From TrEMBL:
InterPro entries: H3K4_H4K5_MeTrfase, SET_dom, SET_dom_sf. Pfam families: SET. One of its GO terms (cellular component) is nucleus. This is SET domain-containing protein. It comes from Psophocarpus tetragonolobus. Residues 34-281 form the SET domain.
Length: 311
């Protein structure tokens, strides 16, 4: 496949060492690292590049969420977001003992506090990302995560109005923990600045998770949910997948089969040194709609080949 000039290696500046082994895994069959590296570019910050040719349809790597949270409209495992067609949305349910066990740390912290005010605020304002911050805060308090887990990700540029809204959410979150008598030293990290920094990163890097596979009942529930405009089982933030830039004609995509564990797959043959890009939005939208969505939702003017050609 011809490599568009946009992807040429002249954009390479400083290759990173692979620092994210904990956030992805390769296929069980091989223990070799995935065929990618992250490097700085001159035009779009960091980017993911192929270190060898990758075949169309190949699994590039998998990734587990740094943090995830189920949606309020689809019943899903509170830990891994597997669809649970026989459960009710809004109820805390786990798909297995393993998931219950894995969540024990942050879930025990969450159960100590009263979330009515915070959850009501999120629901009435149609906010889902603060729920990811709440979960991350519980993970930090329980020792399941570090408070700087998401610091490596690019933050959104926030307007003062957005910061003011975030301050309201922060007060509700902090109050829930203080009223639950969580010791001061355990919530010392939970400052207004921490909340805003985390949310600024989540805004750009969160993925909305729609499962591609599963049981017949899951597909049926998903079809019904699609009609009702919410097919997602939840939202999640990953580390390595967050370094993939956007292209309106991508050469890779991210998919979810049974739960929030993501698979990054090649959509066509990829050359060594080519940048790997995924599509953040619906690529079937017209040029103006895509530009508007990318600018409003992600704060950037797309430099992909399709957009540069006005397609
Ligand atoms: C999820 S991050 C991707 C990784 C990012 N480049 C970094 O250094 O962390 C999304 C950000 O990358 C940049 N970006 C991604 N795709 C782009 C594109 N097609 N055109 C211009 N900027 C892009 C924008 O700054 C965007 O807000």
């Amino acid at each position: 496949m011809a490599v568009p000039s946009l992807f040429s290696r002249r954009f390479f500046r400083k290759p990173f060492t692979l620092f994210f082994y904990s956030s992805f895994s390769t296929t069980a069959a091989t223990s070799s690292p995935p065929p990618i590296h992250v490097a700085l570019t001159e035009s779009v910050g960091r980017a993911v590049f192929a270190t060898r040719p990758i075949g169309s349809g190949d699994l590039i790597h998998t990734a587990t969420p740094a943090v995830c949270h189920p949606s309020s409209t689809r019943a899903a495992c509170y830990s891994c977001l597997a669809a649970l067609p026989h459960s009710q949305p809004h109820t805390v349910t786990f798909c297995s003992q393993l998931c219950r066990q894995r969540s024990k740390g942050y879930f025990d912290v969450e159960m100590k506090a009263n979330w009515v005010a915070f959850d009501d605020y999120c629901r009435t304002h149609g906010l889902k990302y603060p729920l990811l911050v709440k979960r991350l805060a519980c993970m930090v308090i329980s020792g399941d995560a570090s408070s700087d887990t998401l610091d490596i990700l690019q933050p959104a540029n926030l307007i003062p109005e957005t910061v003011l809204e975030m301050e309201e959410e922060f007060v509700l979150l902090r109050n829930a923990f203080t009223k639950a008598l969580i010791a001061d030293e355990h919530i010392a990290f939970l400052t207004k600045q921490w909340y805003i920094n985390v949310l600024a990163r989540i805004r750009i890097n969160a993925f909305r998770i729609e499962l591609a596979g599963g049981l017949y009942e899951d597909l049926l529930a998903s079809a019904v949910a699609s009609v009702e405009a919410e097919a997602a089982v939840g939202n999640a933030v990953y580390i390595l997948p967050s370094f993939y830039n956007h292209d309106c004609d991508p050469n890779a995509h991210i998919i979810w089969i049974n739960n929030a564990d993501a698979k990054l797959k090649a959509l066509r043959d990829i050359d060594e040194g080519e940048e790997l890009r995924i599509c953040y939005i619906d690529a079937s939208l017209d040029h103006d709609a895509r530009r508007e969505l990318l600018l409003r939702g992600f704060g950037f003017q797309c430099n992909c080949s399709r957009c540069l050609h006005g397609d």
